[in-house]
Amino acid sequence: MKKFLILVAFVMSLSCVTLSVKAQCVTIGIPEVVDKTRGLPLAVKSMLRNSFTDAVNSVRGYAAYDRTSDIDTVLDEHMFQQSGLVRESSIKQIKMTGVRYLLLSEASIYDGKLYVTAKIMNVETARVVATEDIIMYNHAMGIKQGCKALAQRLLGVVK
After folding, report:
1. What is the span of the domain harbouring residue 25?
2. Residue, of 9 and 43, whose pLDDT is higher
3. In terms of Cα–Cα distance, which of 85, 99, 90, 107 is closest to 39?
4. Which residues pair with 115 in a beta bridge?
5. Eight-state DSSP code of residue 130
6. Edge-to-edge strands, sheet with 62-65
7. What is the DSSP letter of 34?
8. pLDDT by residue (tens digit) across 97-134?
9. Residue 20: CB partners within 8 Å, gap ≥ 6?
10. Phi, psi of 59 (to 5 degrees)
11. Looking at residue 150, which CATH number applies to its domain?
């Protein structure tokens, strides 16, 4: 299942390849959601991160990179390919893309709703270029819609 998710994320990130040479794809890393209150279920944190990734990838000219749990799977596959069990002609090299921005998010649950604050930070300068927050319903569709709205507002500032 993880390999399938990695493949889907990779294919979605290829949308930037179809852009003209003049238009550069803006790369955004999506790290794990911060839960300072430690009251957020792991499933909700995972849905938030995945929804942010989907939301960024759905906007033309942007590519999201999830470097949290999926990177371990990629590295495990690379180690397997280097084990001698794979034909040398089939071994792939790891070449990852550096991201220009990070979409950092913090979430907490209060009164049955999710309170999410997100910001876009320039990786090179550590400057926060945009900050937004949103209150969303604590269910799958609420999380998906809330992350999409939040990401679109944040990406409107990033060029």
Report:
1. 2-155
2. 43
3. 107
4. 108, 135
5. E
6. 62-65, 26-29, 101-110, 113-122, 128-137
7. B
8. 788 999 999 999 999 899 999 999 999 999 999 999 99
9. none
10. -95, 120
11. 3.40.50
Query: What letter would DSSP give residue 28?
Result: E
Q: What domain count does the chain have?
A: 1
Reduced to 3 states (helix: H, G, I; strand: E, B; else coil), residue 35 is coil
Rounded to an integer, the average pLDDT of 38-62 is 94
How far is residue 53's CA from residue 43's CA, in Å, rounded to a whole number?
15
DSSP label at 77?
A: H
User: Which segment, 1-10, 74-83, 112-121, is predicted with the most confidence on average?
Assistant: 112-121
Instruction: Give me the sign of the Cα torsion angle 64, 65, 70, 75.
Output: positive
Which of 68-72, 128-132, 137-141, 155-159 has the weakest average pLDDT? Answer: 68-72
